[in-house]
Specification:
The chain is α/β, with parallel strands linked by helices. The chain contains 12 helices and 9 strands. Strand 3, helix 4 and strand 4 form a beta-alpha-beta unit.
Amino acid sequence: MTLSEMRRWMTEHDLRLTKSLGQNFLHDGNQLRRIVQAAELDPPGPVLEIGPGLGPLTELLLAARCPVMAIEMDQRLVTILRQRFVDHPGLNLIQGDALEVLRNSETDWTGYKVVANLPYSVGSPLLVDMALRPTAPSLIVVTLQLEVAQRIRAKESTPEYGLLSLLLGWRYAAESTFRIPASCFFPPPDVDSACIRLRRRPVPLVEGEQIDRFLQIVRQAFSQRRKMMWKLLRTIWTEETLAPAFAAAGIAREARAEAVGLEQFVVLAHQLPANSSTSIPENNPVIN
């Protein structure tokens, strides 16, 4: 789907894009093909696409013989998509808010791959939500703001490292990333984007009740970035409990969370006992 074709569909349907929905449509054919290639769709398998927009990526996914479940919030775009792909039985198009649809769905996502140009406004929460699902997709290939992609791949002691790196890292290994200039989108966003690939770990780094404990630890540790992590966790666990856990993880008492790696947080989740004094929200933890 070329930029001129996009303009034609929008003109025919008197469609004006809504900035609050993060409607920036990727039209560059080379970049779209790179995304599909990164998704490893041979052999074809079920794909979840979030925010298909006018369907340029959807078109390539269907051409790869993949059954596609696409979730689009904007009813105007759903109308266009139904017209464009009326002869494609492989497309299951759902109108609704993707976060709500996924949270209310009982679908087993284990065999799915997520391939999408995610709306900027919901990209991070959607990814965290997927990671927390009992049946998480096997592969996620998505475009995001460049800054967000850098945060996902960041390692400790770098400026980009933070909560998002950890909330995804326990379940997914971040792999390749390539930059996508703003000029490849219509309308061009104010920032560049990047495509990132996340591969589900064969075994999660934390399991069962350790997941809640891991979330509790990292949320508390990053609640005040400039404070020593020891002092922040002391509001939940006793010094007698923290001392051997910190020693096992090789963490100094003076360390701040930004200097502590994923594997060290995992050790803490294994070492520290359950503590219900700080509740964990049912939905996504804070990811800023």
